[in-house]
Structures are given as C-alpha cells and as structure tokens.
Amino acid sequence: MEVYSKRRGETARDYALRVLKGNIISLDLMPGTAISENELATELGISRTPVREAVIELAKAYLIEIYPQRGSFVSLIDPKMVEEARFLRRITDTAVIEAACDEIDEKGIAALEDNVSLQEFYLSKGMTEKIFDLDNKFHKGIYEAVKKDIVYEIHSTLMIHFDRVRTLSVETVKDFKVVGDHRKMLEAIKAGDKVTAAQLVEKHLNRYQIDEKEIRSQRPEYFKA
Amino acid sequence: MEVYSKRRGETARDYALRVLKGNIISLDLMPGTAISENELATELGISRTPVREAVIELAKAYLIEIYPQRGSFVSLIDPKMVEEARFLRRITDTAVIEAACDEIDEKGIAALEDNVSLQEFYLSKGMTEKIFDLDNKFHKGIYEAVKKDIVYEIHSTLMIHFDRVRTLSVETVKDFKVVGDHRKMLEAIKAGDKVTAAQLVEKHLNRYQIDEKEIRSQRPEYFKA
DNA sequence: GCAGGAATGGTAGTATACAAGTCTGACCAT
DNA sequence: ATGGTCAGACTTGTATACTACCATTCCTGC
Questions:
Q1: B151/A87 CB distance under 8 A
Q2: Is A161 within 8 Å of A62 (Cβ atoms)?
Q3: Distance, Å, B33 CA → D29 C1'
Q4: Rounded to an integer, what distance in angstroms lies between the CA atom of residue A170 and that of residue A166?
Q5: What percent of chain B has pLDDT over 90?
Q6: How far apart are alpha carbons A89 and A210 in whole angstroms?
Q7: A contacts of B69 (beta carbons < 8 Å)
Q8: pLDDT tens digits for B148-188?
Q9: Can you tell me whether residue B74 is helix, strand or coil?
Q10: How far from chain centre, in Å, is Cα B150?
Q11: Cβ within 8 Å, pair B148-A92
Q12: Is B28 helix (H, G, I), strand (E, B) or coil?
C-alpha cells in the first residue's frame, strides 16, 4: 500500500480516509486484501480510533467488509454493486446534464471548457495518467453548475466501485475515447441540446460495461461472483 | 428526546444511530438542538465511542453539524438540502418505477398490494400514525422489486431531510392523499403504464413542496435561511 | 462602572486499555 | 495416523483517559 504524507491541518481521520480511498481506487489495495486497523494505524503514525472511523465510513459504502472479531477486508468487485452504481450514475448524470442544457451560466461553461481543453492537451502529449482526475472533475463541474453538489458528494464514495473497474479498464484497454465524449457533451450543453446530451451520457457509461467483461476474464480473482 | 431500549444483539453504535435517527425524524430532537456526545452516552448507558461513531455518520449526511471543540447540533432544515434530496428522489423514484413497469414479478406485486391495502385499512380506521412507516416501505418495495436495494439504502439517510418536512407536514396539514397516490402507482405498475407511473411520482412528491411553504411560516425557527 | 485578562468548564479529536470472540497450531490421547 | 482440545495470538467492539481548543464568566485593575 502506498502511504501518502499527512497534510497540515488535516485531521487524522481524514488522513486515514484519504489514504484508504486512494489505495482502493488505484488497486494498490487489491480486492480481498485484509485491512488491520492496528497495522494501518502504525503505518500512518496515528492511533486506532481515527483509522477505525475511516474504515467504518468505507464499510457504509460497501467498499470494506467488516466481520466482527475476525477481520476487515477490501470488498471484492461485486457486479451487482457496480451495476447499481452505474444505474445511479446514469440516471443522475442524465438528469443533471439536461438541467445544465437549460440553466448553465457563462462561468460554468468556462470551467468545463478549461477542463476539456486540458484533457485534450494531455491526451495529445500522451500524458494519459492526468486524465483520470480531470474526468472526475468534468462531471463534478456539471453537478456544481446546476447546484446539485450534495448529490455528487453523496454519490462519490459509492462511485469508487465504478472507479475500480475504470482503473482496470485504463490498465488493460488503454482507451481514451472518453476525452472525445467530454468534448461532445460540452458542445451539446452549449447548444442546449438535451436529447444529444442524454445520448452521450448513455454511450459514455456503456464504454465501461463493455470493458468489464474483458477485465473479468483477465483478473477473475478480483471479482465476487 | 425519547430513549428507546436497546435491542439484544444490537451493537452500541447501531443503537445510538437508531435513537438519533428516530428522534431527528420525529423532531423530538428539534433542528438546532445541541447534541452532547457525553450526555447522550450517559443517557443511553453506553460509552462515548459508539455515540461518536453514530454522530459522525449523521454528520456525513448533513443531519448533524459538528463544530470541533465547540459542539454538535441537529442541522436546521436547509431548503437547498431538501431540494437536492427531492431532486434525487424524483429522478430515482421515476427511473425505478419505470423499470418496475417492465420487470416486476408476481411476488413484488403481491408485496406492494399487501402494503397498500394495509394503508387503506388504517386510513379508513383513522389510524393515520401507522401510515408513515408503510409509506416508506411501499417505496422501498419498488426498489427491491427491480433489484436496486443498495440505491435505496444509500439514499435513505439523506432522505431524512425530506422526512423531517413530512413529519411537519402531517402535523400541520393532516393530508392523506398520499394513500390514494400509492394505489394509483401500483395500478400503473400492474398495467405496465410507464408514462402514468412517472406522472404520479412527480405529483406525489410535489405535495410536500406545497406544504413546505406553509410549514415554514408556522415554524420559522426550524429553518436555515 | 468598565475594560481586559485569567481561570473555568465544556467540546470534539485522539490515544490507549480492556473485553469478547475467532482462528490457528501445537500437543496429547486414542 | 487421526481427532480433539487447549493455549495463544490475532481480530473488532467498547470504555476510558488525555489533549487542544473554544467560549464564557468572573475577577482584577483602573
């Protein structure tokens, strides 16, 4: 596991949470790995209490499974969870992008424009490792533009189920059509074209569904059933 | 605050969580009330640790606001939060009821039928206090029928923002048109009529929007801005 | 009477100690 | 060789102690 350094002013709990989330998404903590609260506390140089609080939060999002008196483990990739996350993401992304077509302002457009341009830049330079973060921020930007930032926040932890598949996806498929998707979405928003925007969301999310089957055959030990 | 008794086998943390949630929904813990972790621990006969874990979970859902070294307070009713919760509920309820129109099975229909019949019974007998729980279970039943129970679970804590307004609504408005709504929804699902089903969801949720303005004028001290 | 500062009591955040259950492996009896 | 059992080293759950910080209050000095 990769241990980041603690930021100034960051509480011990937020620190533990940041490290856990990051390593689960990146698969440095592979699905199925045992998580020892004591061991993790020692590694991070903090006590068990804040570590435990972070573990509980991730367990609430089904990213860690806690078996009392036995142990805690990073959840295996559960196709049902991924499917529910994808379902949720599809319907909220669709509703939000449609709202954006109606009510986005200049500032919101400018923020998205900057983001997509940067993605295109990194893609052209082959610095594809930068794109993952920008991808998330692009979608977050749409939510913020229509004042639904709490909805994004509430869903973000759950979407890690999705992110893990995406991590495997970029590892194995090396497919960056997503950048083109983002550009088209932005153009649809600017044009106020709800129908096209909604279709793009659908298509965008389907990319990962296709990948999943391929990944599953390559890494069956990461999957639940 | 009403202190329920601890169930056998229930962990101290779940116990604290159940008591807090229940009292926040029922408004026995009024918006703005100070929550002392120490005091609550004493009242429940458990230690601060599980109480604190419960408080943190509710803070994640914006139901409690924690000010470090100063205190924790039950959140005031925030119109933006209520609006985001309503938005989320509208789009997910709509998507789920449309899915139910296509894929619900006999067992799912039977469960909903039992629920609605019971609502109608209690309504006819004037036992309206029973309806609140049945209302929740009706909607949960639809999610389960289309295998989206995690989505329901993830949203349930956030929907307490909504539930508080509903609690005030039944206190002040005494309007049980919702039972009729549920009957109509069920009939639409049985008929596989997506368009009608979606319209009913919209209408159903709008009831609370109308109430909110009335409630707000009666209890301004519960509201944020 | 009033302004300022120190003492006081309270809070959440963190650390540590203890309780209760589970698994493993050694060891002994059959 | 096999099966049972018991000790010990884990685990999470809970309790308690301590720390740093904030707000109020009350006393002091003017």
A1: yes
A2: yes
A3: 40
A4: 6
A5: 76
A6: 16
A7: none
A8: 999 999 999 999 998 898 888 765 555 678 899 999 999 99
A9: strand
A10: 16
A11: no
A12: coil
